[in-house]
Design goal:
It is found in: Cell membrane. Keywords: Antibiotic resistance, ATP-binding, Nucleotide-binding, Transport. It is a peripheral membrane protein. It contains 11 helices and 14 strands. The chain is 39% helix and 28% strand.
């Protein structure tokens, strides 16, 4: 679905050349759900715009949905859908009419566009809203309409840029229910950005992290967390002196009476660690384990948090 080699984008800023994306290599197989993460200014949106033909690469090549983004951008656009961060629908048409118009723009006949509109209205639970104008819809309803507009021409690949940003938790869960249903119904390949790390962690089959215009991590969320972050053990002791000793024993860090360790498997390591501390005369008052997050992965790679910045770019 996506094959990029050496994808680079440079900009001129006050007569100086600034490289926003540095030679990205990326392959995405058909039918996958890939989350593309990175802090603000990492090159996430620039990469997305190149892959969707909205921005030409300075160098490198990319084939998306079987077509070269530079040599055949129209062929790419015919095979992909793109749902940006902002609402796509106008304010003057009714919801169903907006979908039909979008279908006609992609070359569908009026009959086929109407049939496809009705199919998507049903799939995305928009049938009761078909005769309303987009401006009267809630945030979650408008986002579902945006997704329907991106799917009207039956694309093989759908790009979603922050699909659930700004929505309340219930609407976010609803959007994800519909996104996952797309894969079950059509086998659509989904490539999305999100600043809700738990979404990428729980929903994506693959996570790609970009920082400074370069891909710094790529794999399943579970593998990245296991390989790059590890589990966490946190204990507290009666005194700071005991905490310092406990930290040395476990190769961890102590802050006051709190000790934190990073280990491959916290559930297996904690009993042995507690027995060792007990044998050393250290009284542990509390103990807990925690699985790492994708933010821990980014912290391990870069020394800072993914959430330090406002991630949407």
């Amino acid at each position: 679905m996506i094959h990029a080699r050496g994808l680079t984008r440079e900009f001129k800023v006050k007569k100086e050349t600034v490289t926003a994306v540095h030679g990205i290599d990326l392959d995405v197989e058909a039918g996958r759900l890939v989350a593309f993460l990175g802090p603000n200014g990492a090159g996430k949106s620039t990469t997305l715009r190149m892959l969707t033909t909205l921005l030409p690469p300075t160098s490198g090549t990319a084939t998306v949905a079987g077509h070269d983004v530079g040599q055949n951008p129209a062929g790419v656009r015919a095979r992909i859908g793109y749902v940006g961060q902002k609402n796509s629908a106008g304010e003057n048409f009714l919801v169903r009419d907006e979908l039909i118009t979008q279908g006609r723009c992609y070359g569908l006949s009026t009959r086929d566009a109407a049939a496809r509109a009705d199919e998507l209205l049903d799939l995305l639970d928009l049938v009761p809203l078909a005769r309303r104008k987009p401006g009267t819809l809630s945030g979650g309803q408008r986002r579902r309409l945006d997704i329907a507009l991106g799917l009207i021409h039956r694309p093989d690949l759908l790009f979603l840029d922050e699909p659930s940003t700004g929505l309340d938790p219930k609407s976010r869960a609803d959007i994800w229910q519909h996104i996952l249903r797309l894969r079950e119904t059509f086998g659509t390949t989904l490539f999305l950005t999100t600043h809700y790390l738990e979404e990428a962690d729980n929903m994506a089959e693959r996570v790609v992290i970009i920082d400074g215009g370069k891909i710094i991590a790529d794999g399943t969320a579970e593998r990245l967390k296991n390989d790059l972050a590890g589990d966490h053990i946190t204990i507290t002791t009666s005194t700071e002196q005991e905490a310092a000793t406990a930290a040395r024993i476990g190769n961890g860090t102590a802050t006051g009476t709190t000790v934190r360790l990073q280990v491959p498997n916290a559930a297996a390591a904690l009993p042995d660690y507690l027995r060792t501390l007990d044998g050393s005369g250290i009284r542990v008052t509390t103990a807990e384990t925690a699985r790492p997050t994708l933010d821990d992965v980014f912290l391990a790679l870069t020394g800072r948090s993914l959430t330090d910045d406002d991630i949407p770019a």
